[in-house]
Amino acid sequence: MTRRCPLCGQRRIFRRWFNMLERCPRCNLRFERVEGHSAGALGINTAVSLIALFVVGVVGFIATYPELPLLPLVASNIAVAVLFPIFFYPFSKTLWTAIDLRMRPPEVDEVRPGYGEWIAG
Ligand SMILES: [Zn+2]
Q1: HSE-CB for 73 with a 13 A CA cutoff
Q2: What is the whole-number distance in angstroms between the Cα of residue 111 and the centre of ligand 1?
Q3: How many Å lie between the centroid of ligand 1 and the Cα of residue 92?
Q4: For the chain, how many structural domains are there in total?
């Protein structure tokens, strides 16, 4: 959740907001571990964005009840639906990689020596 390498905690793993390095400069973990790896990040981003959209909708409804001004409510929901997935994109990548590492611990030859043993053991 901090845009760091989920294995070693390295900070600089993004060139830009959407551009993640192929490998971690410290532990050498390849972030796209298998083909289609990013589909998991996409799924997490979609799920969290839907939760954010739901929260904004409920809070907007409660805060403005009983007037329920349609235009501001729809505009705030559209803004969240468009902007939140963009904001959450890098977090979804590192979060999914962390989940993937828990489900499939790194192989010995997948990372530099000294990294990954704690998660595999
Ligand atoms: Zn790392």
Answers
A1: 16
A2: 8
A3: 16
A4: 1
Q: Report CA(106)–ligand 1 centroid distance (Å).
A: 11
Model pLDDT for residues 76-103, shown as the tens digit of each residue:
999 999 999 999 999 999 999 999 999 9
Domain encompassing residue 1 = 1-121
List of the chain residues with pLDDT < 70: 118-121
Measured on CA atoms in the order 73, 77, 79, 84, is the torsion positive or negative? Answer: positive
pTM recorded for the entire structure: 0.89
Ligand 1 center from residue 31 Cα (angstroms): 9
Residues 6+ apart with CB under 8 A from 44: 92, 95, 96, 99
